[in-house]
User: Fold SCP domain-containing protein from Caenorhabditis remanei.
Amino acid sequence: MLKKMMFIVISIFLLESINAATPNSNNFDREQLNFINGLNIQRHNFANHTVNMQKLVWNKELQDIAEQHSLSALQSNGWRIVVATNYTNGAQNLYDIAIWFLKDSCPKNEEDRHLESKFFEHLNPLQTIIGCAKKTENELLKGYTVMCLLSPSVNLSLPSCAPFKSSCANGFEYKDGFCSNSDLPDSDQVMFISALNEKRRQIATEQHIANMYEMVSRKSTPGRLETLYIATMMVRNLIQIRKPQVVAKHCSCEM
Assistant:
């Protein structure tokens, strides 16, 4: 009975501490979540220029790598990256660039379009997970303070110039403006559970609590969540395949 009461008290404490979190506290980054939501709105708006557009979901592993390594080091090892001015209006700035790019690049050949697409990765339908980190202007570009890694694709799929009826790949269905094949948790739910587990690990260590299990979403069923899991595993495989020294020396990529 005492153990059960203690578990309830700890659970309430964890929930309240994370709910009351300010940006970047308790590993719950509302600024980043709002930014990712803005990127997903853009993906929704561009869905009729491509096929199989899925919603981007936050990924802790990508965020950790983005936090720990420089833009140049990651670029040299083939990571797919998008940079933004900031979390507040960075998504809108990227949208403006995307609109300009689409209008300006369409008369050009495909090779030139790819060369000019460095601010376009967030609209790549092949990418399904994302993790961002704040950086300084000296680390990125003048006026830019946010860097995001996207995965699992190492290729860029540009939207077509002419819109057409949105379509989804086999096994996916069109739902809420995106292609989906099951109910996948949104980024805020994924980050909340991640933050909750981090807090549980901290309390388990401080209070010497044994057998503190990791919490998972009840939506952990085959389908899009399995797709997300596969994408996450592909990130780990890419780390091993590319063997970027900076990541291998400084980053533990186990969740």
